Amino acid sequence: MHYQGKDEDFVIFVDDVKSVQNWKDDRSIPLAHVVSGFKIFVTHKHGAQNAHDEASKQVLENEFGTHNEDECMIKILERGSLQETEASERQGPKNETMGPRQAH
Q: N or C of the chain: less Cβ packing under 10 Å?
């Protein structure tokens, strides 16, 4: 999710579009079932696709009037826009059966 604030752009990662829509329809769904990791990132006004740094409490306070991350995430989920990307399901070596990749 991308939220364009007054001074910063904020990004949170969600599990999928459907979970966000379900949460918007039913607020009894815990944030843990919607948000992928409880971190809020800032992009330094470079858009959702660029480098992200973790948002400081001061930045959150300035934008949202609180540094409570749950409250900030709720505001981002309510007012932000979905940015769909495909996450790689696996990082690292793709074929571990070939043994170590070292020169002898």
A: C
